[in-house]
Amino acid sequence: MTEKNIGIMGGTFDPPHMGHLVMAEYVREALSLDEIWFIPVGKIPHKDSSHTASAKDRLAMVRLAVADNPYFTVNSIEADVPEYSYTCETLEKLKQQFPEYCFTFIVGADSLDYMERWKEPERIFRACTVAAVHRMGYSNEETGRKKAELEKRYHAVISIISVPCIQISSTEIRERISVGLSVRYLVPETVLQYMDRHLLYRKNFTEIKR
């Protein structure tokens, strides 16, 4: 098996949007990664399922979103299981399946503040390196301090990546659709068409504005 450097983008992707794609592309180039694997979660914790898309729909939308980028692919390791998935377990499974690959887990810089509260974070840092993407409201000093703390505590390897500030959230997209506002330019056109065709996130089932 050929050694590869793989970036992992996890999340609900409910729905996937342009901010996800820009983040992934900047990290890929900054770290010279061979591929980015998008891994949608299956069961979404702490959310009202009536306001979210199914794992099947979210997986389909991510596949559409990344289809035109040869460096992007989708892995259904979490979407294929009915129970909650933990990051440490997913990364360890990937390491078992692809022992010669080096994995980089991509997170927002704000996630560094609470990664030690994730399930068994030491297992995460053993299985991969971490790329933390700067977010608005987090200074270089704050991020640097947290990076140093985690590296010392867990022997982690963490890179800080700067990307353009694109303030798009999946929550905002769902809310705009629910009240009949346009989401053009917030999501890829193929994703917009899928949401429209499958009546996603709509309260009154009116056509999504373009």
From TrEMBL:
Organism of derivation: Ructibacterium gallinarum
GO process annotations (BP): NAD+ biosynthetic process
InterPro entries, A to Z: Cyt_trans-like, NadD/NMNAT, Rossmann-like_a/b/a_fold
GO molecular function: ATP binding; nicotinate-nucleotide adenylyltransferase activity
Keyword Repressor: no
Described purpose of this protein according to its UniProt entry: Catalyzes the reversible adenylation of nicotinate mononucleotide (NaMN) to nicotinic acid adenine dinucleotide (NaAD).
Swiss-Prot/TrEMBL keywords: ATP-binding, NAD, Nucleotide-binding, Nucleotidyltransferase, Pyridine nucleotide biosynthesis, Transferase
Protein name: Probable nicotinate-nucleotide adenylyltransferase
Pathway involvement of the protein, from the record: Cofactor biosynthesis; NAD(+) biosynthesis; deamido-NAD(+) from nicotinate D-ribonucleotide: step 1/1
Annotated EC: 2.7.7.18
Similarity annotation: Belongs to the NadD family.
Residue span(s) of domain Cytidyltransferase-like: 8-176
Alphabetical list of HAMAP family matching this protein: NaMN_adenylyltr
Reactions this protein catalyses: nicotinate beta-D-ribonucleotide + ATP + H(+) = deamido-NAD(+) + diphosphate
Principal EC category: transferase
